[in-house]
Amino acid sequence: GIDIGTLRSATGLVTLDPGYKNTGSTTSAITFLDGEKGVLRYRGYNIEELAEKASFLEVAYLIIFGELPDQASLTKFQTDVTNHTLIHEDMRKIFDGFPTTSHPMVVLSSLISVLSTFYPGSMESNRSDEEVYMSIVRLIAKVPTIAAWSYKNEMGHPVNYPDNSLNYGARFLKMMFALPTQEYDIDPVMVSALNKILILHADHEQNCSTSTIRIVGSSLANIYASVASATNALSGPLHGGANQQVIEMLEAIHSSGATIDEFMEKVKNREMRLMGFGHRVYKNFDPRAKILKKACDDILSKMGIEDPLLDIAKKLEKIALEDEFFIERKLYPNVDFYSGIIYRAMNLPTDMFTVMFAMGRLPGWIAQWKEMLEMKQPIGRPRQIYTGENERSFVPMSDRK
Ligand code: ACO
């Protein structure tokens, strides 16, 4: 029964805004987003141009350090990342302890957290710039290795060590899919699709996982603990977990034999949500979804794949764009609606989809963490309006009902 607004709490006036729908938590110079016009820019560069022309590591550098790297800076960054792709052999023992039923997203967040035990310098409150740089490099370098190994753990396959003669995307794909029993050929179409998809996910201002990293980091928790918290926030089905849910939903429609109209009726009756639709900020279209829809068509045709789920997705989108329920509520496809179909074409299992999102979002989390510290943002500590009981006397056990 409490409306959004400014209310009186025990200690003064407090603005109440559940879900922070209208609350700016910080200033930031990293990502510009115009939800009405469907504009997304990293450090001033339009997402369309970056997805077309840049490499993921180039965009990571841009987001984290503020400028596009010149050739020497990019070469140094790529070399530093390449030199740190291995994870400590003792960490492999931790993989062995996870049941093979573990969701790879949980393995990923746990092992990101564990990195601080191998790099105790990250725990010191007076971290040098060099230590911060190295922890950034380590995270960008090691997260793909951890991600691929969590998949291998789930499959019960031997892990592949990173092949440092390859670029970032190709190295990850080889760690994921190469088997000791057969040759693994890198498919350049897959590498380029991965590059684009990672760039599109690289930052998205103050979303749930990014707000998480800024608030956890504001307590001066170390970078690995902070990134692990963001990874956990991303795992939820209303955030990064939505890409897995989209494919599960499309598969369910495909196998149920129900018509798309029947499914849409259920959505409109609020029995379920149309996963991959709707966004807190984009109210006309999500520019990332536009790029991915086209990429999806291009990639599937280049790979010679026909996926019935893509047809279902397109039909759902077409119906939704003409239906009053969706128009009134300004619900459009978001980045997750088509990304899962590309991941399927790459043979990634559905429970790796959110891990892919985390790999892409990593530079954004790091940049926001770094910016938050450089701004000397005070510790995050929202207020509340108390709605519980007034003061009561303790009731002895014998008198409780
Ligand atoms: N399907 C059906 N109806 C929806 C959907 C959907 N996907 N999303 C919102 N609605 C409806 C709600 O029922 C509500 O209708 P009502 O006012 O009649 O009750 C209205 O639209 C507003 O919905 P909210 O939940 O208030 O919108 P909010 O901004 O809080 O939520 C969110 C945004 C979480 C993304 C929501 O649209 C959703 O759940 N989408 C599906 C999950 C998804 O795709 N998540 C990925 C988000 S993007 C990302 O993290 C990369």
From TrEMBL:
<dbReference type="InterPro" id="IPR010953">
    <property type="entry name" value="Citrate_synthase_typ-I"/>
</dbReference>
<feature type="active site">
    <location>
        <position position="279"/>
    </location>
</feature>
<dbReference type="GO" id="GO:0036440">
    <property type="term" value="F:citrate synthase activity"/>
</dbReference>
<dbReference type="InterPro" id="IPR016143">
    <property type="entry name" value="Citrate_synth-like_sm_a-sub"/>
</dbReference>
<comment type="similarity">
    <text>Belongs to the citrate synthase family.</text>
</comment>
<dbReference type="InterPro" id="IPR036969">
    <property type="entry name" value="Citrate_synthase_sf"/>
</dbReference>
<keyword id="KW-0012">Acyltransferase</keyword>
<dbReference type="GO" id="GO:0005737">
    <property type="term" value="C:cytoplasm"/>
</dbReference>
<keyword id="KW-0808">Transferase</keyword>
<keyword id="KW-0816">Tricarboxylic acid cycle</keyword>
<comment type="pathway">
    <text>Carbohydrate metabolism; tricarboxylic acid cycle; isocitrate from oxaloacetate: step 1/2.</text>
</comment>
<protein>
    <recommendedName>
        <fullName>Citrate synthase</fullName>
    </recommendedName>
</protein>
<dbReference type="Pfam" id="PF00285">
    <property type="entry name" value="Citrate_synt"/>
</dbReference>
<feature type="active site">
    <location>
        <position position="336"/>
    </location>
</feature>
<dbReference type="GO" id="GO:0006099">
    <property type="term" value="P:tricarboxylic acid cycle"/>
</dbReference>
<dbReference type="InterPro" id="IPR019810">
    <property type="entry name" value="Citrate_synthase_AS"/>
</dbReference>
<dbReference type="InterPro" id="IPR016142">
    <property type="entry name" value="Citrate_synth-like_lrg_a-sub"/>
</dbReference>
<dbReference type="InterPro" id="IPR024176">
    <property type="entry name" value="Citrate_synthase_bac-typ"/>
</dbReference>
<dbReference type="InterPro" id="IPR002020">
    <property type="entry name" value="Citrate_synthase"/>
</dbReference>
